[in-house]
Structure formats: C-alpha cells, structure tokens
Protein 1
Amino acid sequence: MTKKKKNPVWAFFASVKLALFLLFVLAGTSIIGTVVPQNQPPEFYVRQYGPDTAAFMQHLGVPDMYNSWWFLGLLGLFCLNLIVCSLERIPQVWRLVTKDNLATPVDRLRKMGIRKRIVLDRPLPETVKMIKSHLGRHHWRTDRRDMEGGTMLFAQKGAWTRFGVYVVHTSILVILLGAIIGSPAVARKILKNPNIAFKGSIMIPESRESDFVWAFQTGEKINLGFTIRCDYFTIDYYANGMPRTYLSKVTVIDHGKKVLTTDLKVNKPLTYKGVTFYQASYQPFPDFIVTLKNNTTGASRTSIIPFGKQIKWPEIGASFGIINKETFGEVVRRVKVWFRDNKDKPSIFWVNAGREAVIERPSGNFSLMTKQLYATGLQVTKDPGVWFVYIGCGMMLAGLLVAFFMSHRKIWAFIHEEDGKTVVLLAGSANKNKLGFEKRFTALVDSLQA
Amino acid sequence: MNSSQLFGITTLAYLLSSAFYLALFVFKNRKLGTIARLLAIAGVLVQTAALGLRWYESYQIGIGHAPLTNMYESLVFFAWCTTLFYLFMEYKFKASVVGAFVMPFAFVAMAYASFARGINQQISPLIPALQSNWLLAHVITCFIGYGAFAAAGGLGMMYLLKKRANNRNLSPETLTGSLPDLKVIDDLIYKTIVFGFMWLSAGIITGAIWANEAWGTYWSWDPKETWSIITWFIYASTLHARFTRGWRGSRIAWLAIIGFIAVFFTYFGVNYLLSGLHSYGSA
Ligand code: HEM
C-alpha cells in the first residue's frame, strides 16, 4: 500500500461525507422554491411577505432561487465533489480490474468465504485439463500458470461492471454540461451571442410570416436567419367541447426558397437548422378568411374580410359578407353568410366555420369557404445542449443497470498434489449479490464432481 | 360488467387481503397467509382485467387512450403496481408477513380513488398536451418506482417495530416474533430501494423528454419536477450512506420512510398544496 499524505483540500472534495451532506442540502433547499412562488414581480413578494422579508428574499435570490448564486454554487460544489471523488477512485478500480489474479497467494484462497476442496483420483496434468475445459464449457475462460507446488487457474466475468458507478457519476456531469451549453443565460451573458441558445415565442397570423422571435425574459428580438410562415391554423374539438387538436400548417422559407411545409401540433414540434418550433397558443381575430370559387369557370379568390363588411367581386358581379356569427369565447363556431350576384334575391345561410358551402345561383355554381382568422402562437427554442442531456440520461440508465444488477465475479482453481492424490482447491468471490454467486459456484463444483 | 364494478371488486379483495395479512401478523397461522396471498392475486387479476376493460371502453366512446391519464387512473395504477411488486417480492423472498405493511397501501389507494370527493372517475378525452407516448412511458416508469418505494416504506416501518420489540427483549411469542429477521428486512429494504431508484430515474428522464417534446423545456423547476428530484436526492443519499458509509438498520429504515413521505408529497401534496404544470390534481 502506498499511503502518501493527501492534500487536505483534495481529501475534503474526495469525501463521500461531503457528497451525502450536499445531497441532503440540495434536497432541503430545493423545497424553498416549491413553497415560495418563483419569478413573480417584486411587488408580489412585498404583498405576500411584507417589505422586510421581501427585501431579504430578494437579497438571497429566493424569487429565482434555482438560478441564484448560492444554489448554482451548491451544484458547482456537487460537481467538483463528483469529479474529485471519481478521479480519486478510478485508478484504484483500474488496478483492481487489471490485477494479476493468477498471483493470488494460495493462503488467500484457503480463507475465502466461498471455496471448496475436492480430491480426485487422476493425475495432475489431466485434472488441470479437465477443470479448464469444464469451466470453459460454463463460459469461464481460464488463464493458467504453472508454479511451484501446483497449477493455478483463474477466470473472471464482468470486471468492467466495476465502472458502472462511474458511468452514472459521469452521466450527471454530462447532463449538467448539456444544461450549460443550452442555457440562454450563458449564451447571452457569457458568450455575448443570444443566437447560440434561446427560448422565445412569436405570434404569426395566418398567411403572414416572421423571420425573428421575441426572447423570453429579456424581450429582445432574435433573428432566425430564415422565415417561417403560418399558412393555416385550426382547432379541432371533442364532442364535449374540450379541444382535441391545435394544428398549424407552416412553411419554412430560407433564402427566398420554400424549404418545407409541415403540420405543427402539440407534442409534434418542427426542428429546422437547430431551431425548434412548438405549438403553444393561438389568438382568434374578429376577421374572416373567405375563399369563393366559381365552380363553373374555376375562377377563385381569397380575401380577408372584417365581420359585417361587404366585399365585391366585380368580374362576376357578386358581393358577399358575414352578417352574423355564433361564438364560443372568442372562437367562432358558425357564421351567417350573405351572398348575391346580379341576378335574383340574395342567398342567406348559416355554415360551420371551416366548412365549405355550395351555393346554386342562376349565374352559376359557387363554393364558399369561411374561416375565422387566427394567429398561431409558437414557442421557439434553440438548445444545442439537449443532445448532451439525452446522452447523459441514457448513460445514467445504462450505468445504473450495470451498477445495481451486474457484478464482478472471480473463480480460482489451484490444482496440486497431496499424498499422491490430486487436490483441487476452488475459490470464488463476487463484489455484489454474493448469495446468488455462491449458488452458482456450488452448482459448478457439484457438476465437476459428478 | 363494466370496469368500475371490477375496480370495486378489486378494492374489496385488497381490503380483505390486507385484513388477512394483518391477521397472519397477529395470529401467525400459515393458512391466513395463504388466504391473504390468494386474495391479493385474485385482486390483481381482476384489476388487470378492469384496466384492460377501461382501456377498451375508452375506445368504445371514441376517445381511446391508455387508462393512465388522470388522478383516478393513476391511483388505480399505483395500487396495481404496488400489489404486483409486493407479490413478486413475496414470491422471491418468501416473507409473507410483509403484506401486512404493504397491502394496506394498495387498498387505501383504491378506496381513495373511488370515494374521495373531487376525484373524477369518468374516462375523459386527452387534451393535446397529454397526447404523447412519452407521457405513457413517464407514468408507467414513475408508478413502478412508487410501488417499490411504498413497499420499502412498509418494510422500514416493519424494521423499526421489530427493532423496538427486540430492544425490549420481548419473547418471540409476541406479535413481532412472526416478522422476518432484522437482517433479512434490512436487505429487502435495500434491494427494494435499488429497484425503485432505477425506475424513478427512468420516470424523471421520460418526463423530461415529454416536457421537451411538448413545451421545448426539459426542466423548468416546477414544483412537481422539483419534488421528484428531491425524492431522487433522498434515495441517492440513502444508497450512498449504505454503500459507502456502511449505514445499516434503523437509519436506512428511517430513510426508507422519509423517502416514501417525499414520494407521497410529490404525488399528492404538490397537487393539493402547491401549484404547477401537472394538472392531475384538478382533473
Ligand atoms: C445524485 C447524484 C449521484 C448519483 C445518482 C449517484 C449514484 C451512485 C450509485 C447508483 C452508486 C452505486 C451504489 C450501489 O451500488 O448501491 C454510487 C456509488 C458511489 N458514489 Fe455516487 N452518485 C451520486 C453522487 C455522488 C457524489 C457527489 C459522489 C462524490 C463523492 C459519489 C461517490 C460515490 C462513491 C464513492 C460510490 C461507491 C463506489 C464504489 O466504491 O463502488 N456519488 N453512486
């Protein structure tokens, strides 16, 4: 053993006691932010807790505690602890995994908790071969060393599983790294380039487009470098009136070229050039989009018209308008259409919003489609760190599986002669699930004797 | 037969099963344990059928989705996971008195789901945010974890009870004599927490992925998320305390109980006492 004097600072950060302390403190302090509402305007805290307590809270950053200096500091300490602790132990584990187990003294084998001595009536060389092939049949690939007084065989399984814990610990660092890379605050304050990572939103009325979004919190304008257009927005309802789907049809236009057109729904975002668009909200307007098509000639025109206003289509001498509506909140469910051409009396009828109505007139056959004008509300994020977070999560689950459910198992067999007989001393060890291993070991030895 | 009748039968079976396990604990008659186990198995089978039926019914009324989307359904699923986990544990470790400390959780969850005011039992359609396979994965993984943690909490109480009896040198003829050895309970607590921790981690991760798909933020420190990470910290420290500092026995038993209180608060307290994104409580 080389026990050199450790730097006390290093020793402090390498200790698991500190880890336990930090885990308890992180758990304890995290409660504060679930009890005190977060990110409210300053007046809120004054009203709720009185001016003195509110000032104290502001001082400690309680209104945004998960981004406060002390909470981030705790997380930083936690990472440092994790790094130092792992750096301290990984070399030890490496030595353990690469150790020359054939050199294990026979006396050690005699003292192991799991062991068995059997005496065989065969010559030694044949016994060695027999045991080697028996273990081999059970997937224990043995190494062999002939030494004074006998032959040592050794096999191990799952040596690498000792690193499982460190995969878990590294995964936490990878996740936090991802969080930093994807943080809008880091992009804005440290890298001075809010375009690297941002969260924002934009309201786009149907048929309009935008090449920027408004950043959350700072409210600054962030250019996308391309354009997104809302072609269409609609809400679909269940029979009981609950919303079933919010759907936007959007088109991405890059350098003046249409790149793609797709449907955006909640839980079905669109990612283009690292920027992801989420269906987040909508805004109904009192205007209507009306498409009128002359089915006889095929001519058609679309116009946005305000409620109650008459529109003319002089080429065919038609005029139309929406004269009444049935609403649910701000959402229009049915509209009453007024339509006339230069022949006969006007047609007046109700039609569901978003449905096509066919109008038979002396001058021809028309289809009319009315739809309330909406703006779609998109949340827009750019998070270059999210893949680190996902990879970290995968590492964590894989590492936990290995750390919890797999073990490092070793088997030794020392074959030697005593009083003209061949004696086999078998021993085994496992770093976890010792009972399960002992059962396997016994079965293996029993089948050897049979 | 509709699913709510079947859930009623399940509740009754869990009540009787809990009663028989308690009777086993008190009277130490092996037969009582067999009855208790059969009742639990019958209950879980009926409940499995009921879950399937409720799923089928949701398709019949035209809004088809897995029965895992509101407070009622999650309570029922919690009871199902707890019972299944317990039966698995009993089968594997042959410690049937443990049922006296675990099955009541399953019964209380079912009873609360059925009788508490403000819990809507209707099959309701899914709002757009809940229409996601990640949500399913999230609920399933979390609740398997919660089921294990409920069992760990029950085991923790059992440990402390037995420990007290031992300290007072009560003869093995008394109540707690029928409980397994302290060492056995201690080992079971550890194994159960390990199992639960695995699933809780998966639950937090699938939840984060779902949030990122739906809202573009995988972590927003809303109270429910925060409480789930608090719970995770508590169990992580429990595992470290045991694994690296050799904590055993009462301390781990207490941590198992504290951990379950945190689970309970994550699941209920947050809905009723705090406000946030997760809308189960109001549903
Ligand atoms: C929340 C964060 C953490 C998680 C999820 C975690 C996870 C784990 C897991 C699953 C194990 C295996 C335990 C077992 O087999 O029962 C473990 C072991 C260990 N952890 Fe952590 N850990 C965390 C933080 C830390 C920190 C900050 C340290 C820093 C000192 C640390 C040091 C250790 C050590 C020394 C071991 C024992 C390794 C061995 O000897 O096999 N852990 N950890």
Protein 2
Amino acid sequence: MGLLSYIIFLPLLGSLVILFLPKDNFKVIRWTSAFFSFIPMLLSFYLTYDYFFAFAGSSQMAYVEGPFQWISAISAQYFLGVDGISVPMVALTGLLSFLSILASFNIEKRVKEYFVFFLLLETGMMGVFVSLDFFLFYIFWEVMLVPMYFLIGIWGGPRKEYAAIKFFLYTLFGSIFMLVAILILYFTSNPHTLNILELIKTAPTLSHSLQLLCFAFFFVGFAIKVPVWPFHTWLPDAHVEAPTAVSVILAGVLLKMGTYGMLRVSWPMFPQGLKFFAIPIALLGLIGIIYGALVSMAQKDLKKLVAYSSVSHMGYCMLALGAFSSVTAMTGVMFQMVSHGLITGALFLLVGVLYDRAHTREIAAFGGLGVKIPVYTGLMVLFSMASLGLPGMSGFVSEFMVFVGSFSSFKIITALAVLGVVLTAAYMLRMVQRMFLGEFNIAKWGGLTEINLREILTVAPLAILTIIIGVYPGPLSNIMKATLENLVTLMAR
Amino acid sequence: MPGIKIELLIPEMFLFAWALFLFLYDLGAKRKNSQSLGYLAMFGVAVTAVLLSLFHGGMVFGTMFQSDQLALFFKVIFLGAAFMAVGASFDIASEKIHNHRGEYYGLILLSTVGMMFLSSASELLMLYIGLELTTIPLYVLVAYFKDDRLSVESGMKYLIVGAFSSAILLYGLSILYGLTGTTDIVLMKINLSLVFLANGKIGPGLILAIVMVIAGIGFKLALVPFHMWAPDVYQGAPTPITGFLSVGSKAAGVVAFARIFVNGLIGFATDVMAPLDWGIIVAVLASAAMILGNITALRQKNIKRMLAYSSIAQIGYLMIGMVAATDRGISAVSYYMFIYLFANMGAFTIATIFNDKTGSDGIISYAGLSKSSPGFAACMTVFLLSLAGIPPLGGFVAKYLVFASGIQAGYTWLVILALLTAVVSLYYYANVIKMMYFSSESPSYKIKPPIPAQIVLFIGVAGVVIFGLFPQPILNLAAEAAKVFAF
C-alpha cells in the first residue's frame, strides 16, 4: 500500500469503524469521522507539498502504485498515480471533505448513517482522481453515486426524494455512454487493455469516425457531471435540496470530476474528436456562462442563486477546454476548477450557516444584516467578491487566464463570454445589497446570532486559500505546468 | 464395465435418495418439531455439494450424461438456490404448511435433481427428461398454499403453460432429430454441417425447429413474449419457491439453451449458413424483454411482481451473452447467473421474511424499514443495488462482462439498449430503497430473521460483495465452463 491507497481507503475504514460505534453517542461518531477525514487531508497536503518539490518539473505520473493484476479476465488492474492535474484535485477533495464533516457536526438526525455515507463518498471521490485504470475509474465514479443518493435523500430539503433520484438517474445515464466507449476502447486496443496511460498512447490511431464516437460518448458522461448546458437540470435540484455539507461536496468536488475526466481521458485520447467538437464545446461553455448568470439573477432563493452560479462558472471551464491548443487556457481550466471549489464551497457553507439560524433562504426576507452579524456579512461579501472575480482573489486569476487563453482560438465567443463577468457582478452585488445593506428589520431578525467559531473555522481556510491563490498563483501553476504542457502536445497530435 | 463411470451419478443419486428420505422422515417426525426437516434438507444439499466436488469430470451412458465443467458450474448454482430457498422457508414451514413439510422440502430437492440432470444433458432426450423432472415438482410447490386462491391459481397457470411449452419444445426437438438423425447434440452439430456442405443450404425444417425450441425454452426462461405467466405465478407462489423458480429453474433453462443453441446450433448464430439465424431472433427477444420487463416493473406496487418483471429484464441482459455465442459470452452468462443467485435469492428471502412478519408484499409497507431494522434494510439495499448493476457489487461485474461480450460480437446496438434500460431499472430498485430509507415513518415492529434465514442473507450479501470485488476465481471457473463448447 502506498500513500494514494491510504488516502483512498482511510475514509472507507472510517466508515466501517463508525458502523460498529454505538448509535446514540453522537460525539464519538462525529469526532471519529472528523479523524478519518483529517488524516487523508493531511496526507493529501503532504502529497501536494512533496509533489511540488520532487515531481512538479516532469509530466510523468508520481506515486504510482501498480499496475497490479486485479481481474485478469477483463484486464482490469489496480493502478494508481497522480500528476499535475490530479494533485490539486486530491488536495481540494481532502480539504473540502474535512471541512464539510466539520460543518456537519450540527446534523442531529440519524447521525451514524450520515457519517458512514459521507466517508464512503470521500473514498469514491478520491478514487476517481487517482485511478489510472478504466475499470477502477468507472467503479469509483459510480460508487460515489450511492452515498450521494442517500445523503440527499435522507437529510435533504422538502423535495429531497425527487432531487436524489434525479441526480442518480442523470449521472448513471451519462456514465453508461462512458461505459460503452470504454468497452469499444478495450476491444480496439491490441493487446486488450484498460490502462488509461496506454490508451492515451494508442487511441489516437483509431479511425476518425470511431474517435468522434468515443469522444462524444465520453463527453456525454462527463458533461452531465460538470454540468454543461443543456445537461444541467439536475444541478439546481440536487444542490438546493442537499444538506449544506453535501452541497459543498457537490459543487466543490463532484462537478470537477467532469472537467477532470475530460482532461484526463477524452481530451488527450481523441485529438481528432476534440478538433471536430472544439467550437461546439466552447459555444456550450458560452451558453452556460450567460444562461447560468441570467438564471441566477432571477433567483429569490439564496441557495438557488449559488447553485446556478455554478452552471455559469463551470461554463468558463468549458470555454477554455475548447481552446485546447493553449497552455494558458488549460491552466485557466485548472485554476477555475480549484477556485470554484473553494469559493462556491464557502458560499454554500455560509448559506447553510444563515439557514440554520433563520430557517429561510429567501433573499427578500432579509435586509441590513450587516448591522446585526458583521463577521458573517464580511465573510459573505468576501466570497461574493471572489465569485464575481475581483482582482486579488482566485476567481480573478482563473477567469483572466480563461479569457486570455481562449481568445486566440475563439475571438467572438470569448468576447461575448466576458459579458458573464458583468452579469455575475450584477447578481452578486444585488444579493449583497438586498441582504446585508439597507434597512434592518429588527422585529424579525433581532434574535439572529453571529456565526460561531466552528463555522468560522470551516470557512476560514477557504478564505485564506482564495486570497493566497489570488495574490500569488505561482506555486499552484508550477504544480500543473509540466503536465499541462505535455497535455497540450498530446492534444495536438 | 469399462467406460461407464457410474460413480459420476453419486451426487444426483444421493440427493434423490435424500428427498425420498425426507418424505419418509416426515411420517415419523413429531408435528411440533418444526425445524429439523429444514435443517436436514439443508444438510442434504450441502452433502451433495461435497459429493459433487469429489465426483465429476467424464461421461456416463455413452454421451447422455456429461459431467463437465459447465454442468459442474451450474450444479453449484442449483444447489445454492435450493439451499437458500430451504433456508428462507423455515417460518413458512412452521406456520403455513406444517402438515406437509416433508413433501415441501423433498420436492425442492427433487426439482434440484432434475436441474442437475438437465445441466449434464448433452443429448436431447436426457435434456427433455431433466426439464420435466425440474418442472413437475415445481407445479406442486407453486400451488402449495392450498387455501390461498392466488397460490392455487398460479399453480394452475404454471401447470398449463408449462405443459404447453414442454410440448412445443418436444416438437422442436423431434424436428431436430428428424433433420439430423441423432439426439446427440455434438453429432447433431456435425450432421448439420455435413448436410449444409452437401446441399449448400438447409431446409425450412430447421427454421421451424429453431422457432419451436426458442419458444419452448423461452417459456421456462420467461423470455418475452413467453413471459405472461411469470408475474402471476411469482406473486402467487410461496415466496421462497418464487425465488427458487426465478434462479434455479431459470439457470436450468439457461444451460439447456446454451447446450442446444450455443453448442448444437452454433453454426446458425450468424447468417452465414442459416436460412434463419437464431442470433438475431434472440437479440430481438432479449431487447423486448429488457424494454418490457423494466418498463412494466416501474408500475408495480407488489414487491414480488416487481421482482418478477425485474427478472424478466435480467434474462434479457443475460441473453446478450448467448447472442454473442462466444466463449466470452458463455463465461459471462455463467458468472451472471452465479451472481444472480445471491442477489435474487437474497431479495426474495427478504420478501419472505418481511411477509412472515407483516403479512404484506406491498412495496409501500417497506416504508421506514431502515429505522426499525437497519441490518435487514441494508441487506435488501445491497441486493437491489447489485440487481441494478451498481459497482462494486457483483451485479455490476456481471453486466459488464455480458455487455463486453455483446460489444465484441458486434451487437453494439443491443448493448446500448441494455444500458439505457438499466438506467430505467435503477428507478424501481431505488424506489424500494427510497421507501426503506427516506420515508419519515417509523414502524413499530422489528424484524429479526430466524437463524437459517440469517445464514441465507449472510451468504447472499457476502456473495454479492466478495465476488463483486474479487471475481477472478469465479471467472476462471466460468472460463473453464465455457471451454466445454469447442468454439
């Protein structure tokens, strides 16, 4: 067992341990699960640190485990490894999982099951980001759906059952196309293999039509996860109905799996498919940016606003993913993934903090909260600014790179996409204005309490990282530089 | 006598004798002692499995009885199904059929003997006899609740449809005999090729034979459009028998189908030399089964009917491996059936115990089960997720293998259709999970299964999880089984 295996399976071990803990001792259950997500987080930070100093200069896989024979009848292998695009994702997952578990300490209903499912979910997510074998990748990809289904369905809001099954069916629908493409790749490779690294080498020799087909199949699978417009309709339901911590994971990690899958699998594997579909992809990104922003603007519910802003923000990723010949654009994609994970994760946490106290999320119900709960207001304003791309914070860096990188490929589309920034500013600022400025309704919200220490601790690391990346993006971009340069040459084949 | 290895029949003979012993034992046993017969039946099945591991490999009675790897693999499935069905029956035996327990268990074992003969038959007559020996005890078992109108009705239905389909099958087999002059499946394959080489074509008689045999076995498999009996029979029969029917009897049909089509008529799986290739017929029937089974299952409110339609759909998936008609396909089918044993028997065991406790088969009455009986609900969840094909459970690997064989054989459209319907199927499987977990109700009862049923549930969960994560040992055996047919 190597470092990566520990990162994947410690949460699983944690969920097994919790199964044997007494059902009513909430305290022990909470701290056990915190422990079993804290260690993987530390390990993922160590991984990032070590990768940065030891491996960042090369595009090779690091911390490779395997390939070990697993199911030889179908050439499935246990094969793990990380490079510059997976390391940031592993660290993000480790961080957000731990913070979400901290944020879940206020769960009072069926506590034991909650943390069992949550830790299972973490195992699935980590597995996706480090698997280098298609069978393993697919298993982790799917395994995650089950705990997510339960987490939304049991602890969710009023329409939880609908949201849970919709999420499950949508994602499964996407992944079946992926499965067909995997099988086609398996049978067209000689000798038959499911090794992703091998297939990246050999798949570009497939016929033009087969490349287009496989690319399209993978795209459906990944695009539903991102979600790319018009596959996004599961997102508002799932994000809004899910409990706070699960929304954080959904927005912070699950959406990134789609874009990660594109970078890891279909982009380097089918260059011809990519060339063929690049413009439609960028267009879909543009539509997502504008559509998501416009719909956010119309929302009355704060959580829905944040949910739709994800559609808009992931649109930037898609736009840049279309501009596959530019290293800057690819760096932009990765930055946007990290930055959106931090910012939207924090926004969902903050929405949850307010909802726990006020039991409503309706924007119009509030006003002038800045008087009563200044610290909370400060944090909320900070992340709203980060979300709209204020310079000095990570959102600005990533959006700037996306635009610079995409402009040389798609001039008009990129120019139109910049409108999205204005629209984002419009709905974010309007939300801030209506909720935190203006007249304070003391009769209604006089009893509102300030954000407590535990809650501050859950968002503070995100705030710090947002600012650090915004001010000094160098280290993060160095981690992924070599990998992305290699990726761009692979895609140019 | 040289060449006759009669000892290969010892497992079958033992199980047969044990069934008769159970009949007799019941005469002498005290009526109050409800447990011993069930344990004896389980013991007999276990002993048969041990005997089977000692005596296998070879032929008896010329080529009539083949104790090959394929037969061995499926015999384990039959014995597993019988073991689990008996284990699930303890409550029913002590409460509902206390006057006829010996016959109940004995008939299950007799039917299992029939399946074992069937899976060893490489010869049409033996195959037919095996099939009859499998089915006739089941007619009785299905109608076992004499006072329950549904059970009697389903027994009647099963008897009429079963007899009718046996006749059709027999007719088809007789045409095959007429065409080839032999009942031996391997000779049949050779003779058919000779006829083809001599004449350059094969007459319309073969079309008739293919259609009749597909219909005849299709009834046993509940393959659409020969499935109409299944939901009613599944609903009316005692629930452990439903499980046994859906796993054991189906697996028997699967072997028969494999022996006749994938071995004897392999030359006609594609349209190279056939007047009518059975591959495309079965592919169409399989897709009909997947569509109809899954869509109809969506609307079911009774768990047994839901599982009935689900098993119709499952046969559709499994048939993809048959259609592929390759060694990969056959080993996938074998593995599929193996996992299906655990998942489906497990689900029916849950339904049995739940009915014993609450008297209800309605899906809606599962509401809130996870609160009162968390372990029980978790078992059901595992079985349903495996049936739905969610990784890392066995059902996923099984589906993956079957679909892989379909893609390899060029049936990409069939696989895509299968995957689409698999998404649909998730909805009704998840519906039960939703009831158990998401409902706000808290039932007052607490389900504690009797010990034998706990063993069955444990075997089921362990099988689905362990053979899902580490399928390689079973896959090796399945690959051995597939080698029986020379492709």
